[in-house]
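Worked Example 4.2. Consider the chain below.
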Amino acid sequence: MSASIIVGLDGSEASGRAADAAADAARRHDLRLVLACVVPWSPYSFSTAEENERRTIDKEREAKSARERVLDPAVARLSAAGDLTVEGVVRHGHPAETLVSLAREQDAAWIIVGRVGQSRVRTLLFGSTPSSLIQLSPIPVLVVP
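Applying the procedure from the previous section yields the following structure tokens:
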């Protein structure tokens, strides 16, 4: 039996709605809620030794910012009623791949994300996290408008 629901947060209104939908589902099914903020980060970049040294500092700064700006307020809001176990996680990597990996680690029943509107051209060129998740995930993905 699954233990959690993973929610991808990016600070947008759509991700806030996704978190609310996930909280409702977690309460109904007695599951933990894991709020995840994924900072896009590629380990495959060509850089100098000096740039590599700064990468660690940059990653830590971005993780702290994501936690303070996105995760902490969401965790506080959703856990305020005291009827839900909520935790926040910051990871670096490709958003869809990282959410799928986290879902496996957390024995998730499903992954929930918000749909942020973007132009069709941008979606065609770069894809979107929800469409990538639908293709990669071995568990159900709920996309909240």
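Helices lie at 13-29, 49-79, 95-105, 120-126, 129-136. The CA atoms of residues 106 and 123 lie 29 Å apart. Compare this with Example 4.1 before moving on.
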